[in-house]
Design a protein that fits this description.
heterodimer, A: 176 residues, alpha+beta, 9 helices, B: 242 residues, mainly alpha, three-stranded antiparallel β-sheet, 3 strands
Chain lengths: 176, 242
């Protein structure tokens, strides 16, 4: 029994992602880098034996998930819901501008976002911070679902601003 | 200053695709891209014209339009008049923020978010592209729940309880019941007044008694007699057939 197999067992037995800090608590000698290396080795084994799953980095931990090519088959079994364009827009506002109020979200989108916010809350992709006004933030689950370890992994919003068909936005034209 | 050029895009070809626009800003961005403008060489007037003509056509087609599209339309009409008659709006020296710049800022902010949302949408997503073991979503414990689902649950309970207090007026008088009551009233008598069959005088009971009387008349059990308009209705017992 090696640390690598213990890590595999911990991730396998977790409901949702196995938190990195839990793995480190159970295997006190191991650093995050060593754990990542073990995960890499495990994924190598799965790849070599043509398994349908791999271990993914998700939020602040790891989880087992199927390879994308099996998605069409699995979708027939679990019929998942795909987020609407409006919901993705709201999610983007909350991810980039959050914590933010509904007013901010509506202001940026130019439309009422009530139903999309409800949809995202139902899917636990955004959390509500109590107060007046209530503020919305992305949840830990958002990171898990979108395969991020933190919001800072998202591309810089300025990159999208520049993409508006105008390569020569330049020093003399200050952007707001 | 802006000059108002003739429309560059034909209007009809996008009228039928209303649902593709998430909102007025989305429609404006579409028009800007269709006219090959960027935010920095944007001529606002033709875009305003095309927006308004789009809205007009959609209204002619009688498609219901979200209020935001109309709010934006009225804002754009104001903006255009301001562009065409700048002196009527901004007295010299009194400079607020240029409304065209404001619109540009709004469009830029929305455009960035839209691009970011597209980027998010292209990422491989758990529960769509990849799937974790089992349905961990349902295994989450209550203690993991955050305020959001709680508020949702409260809202759901509110909806449920609202349904519970819905008042449905019960039908208290059955025609069968009143018919047997009338039979009882005929004991030793040949004629009874319809009102006797509805002692409470309540409208629903009276209607029930009237229906019962009609039914008994149809079955040739009684004969209905009324001397004049609005006068009392009497039930006469017919002789039983043999």
């Amino acid at each position: 029994m090696t640390n690598r197999e213990i890590i595999e067992a911990l991730i396998f037995s977790s409901s949702g992602a196995a938190a990195l800090k839990d793995i480190m608590r159970i295997l006190p000698g191991m650093s995050p880098e060593e754990i990542a290396r073990c995960v890499e080795e495990l994924n190598g084994i799965y790849e070599a034996s043509n398994r349908s799953f791999r271990i993914h980095r998700a939020g602040s931990g790891y989880l087992f998930a199927t390879r994308p090519e099996y998605a069409p088959s699995i979708r027939q079994l679990v019929s998942p819901v795909k987020l609407t364009g409006a919901a993705l827009e709201v999610l983007a506002v909350v991810a980039y501008k959050g914590p933010c109020s509904k007013q901010t979200i509506d202001g940026i989108r130019g439309v009422d976002s009530t139903s999309s916010i409800k949809q995202l809350i139902r899917h636990q992709l955004i959390d509500v911070k109590p107060g007046k006004p209530m503020l919305y933030t992305t949840s830990e689950r958002f990171l898990e679902v979108f395969g991020l370890t933190s919001l800072s992994e998202l591309p810089d919003i300025a990159q999208f601003e520049e993409a508006f068909g105008m390569p020569e936005i330049s020093a003399e034209e200050p952007r707001t | 200053m802006e000059h108002c050029a003739p429309l560059r895009a034909t209007d009809m070809d996008f009228v039928l695709h209303l649902p593709m626009f998430e909102g007025p800003l989305d429609l404006l961005l579409y028009l800007i891209e269709k006219n090959r403008f960027t935010l920095y060489d944007l001529e606002v007037c033709p875009i305003i014209d095309q927006y308004l003509s789009y809205i007009e056509r959609v209204r002619l087609l009688d498609i219901s339009l979200a209020g935001e599209f109309l709010d934006m339309a009225s804002y754009l009409i104001w903006l255009k008049s301001r562009i065409l008659l700048p002196e009527a709006f901004a007295p010299a020296g009194e400079e607020g923020k240029n409304p065209v710049e404001e619109l540009r800022d709004m469009l830029l902010a929305y455009h960035s978010i839209k691009a970011a949302s597209r980027d998010l949408g292209m990422r491989p997503v758990l529960y769509w592209d990849t799937f974790p073991r089992g349905d961990v979503q349902e295994e989450r414990e209550v203690s993991h729940s955050t305020l959001g689902p709680l508020l949702e649950a409260i809202a759901a309970i509110r909806v449920r309880t609202r349904q519970l207090v819905m008042n449905i007026a019960p039908m208290r008088f059955s025609i069968q019941e009143i018919m047997s009551r009338i039979h009882a009233l005929f004991a030793g008598r040949k004629r009874i007044a319809l009102r006797e069959a509805a002692p409470s005088g309540e409208k629903t009971e009276l209607i029930g008694a009237f229906m019962a009387a009609l039914e008994m008349s149809r079955l040739s059990i009684v004969k209905l007699v009324q001397r004049g308009l609005f006068s009392a209705i009497y039930l006469l017992k017919r002789a039983e057939r043999t």
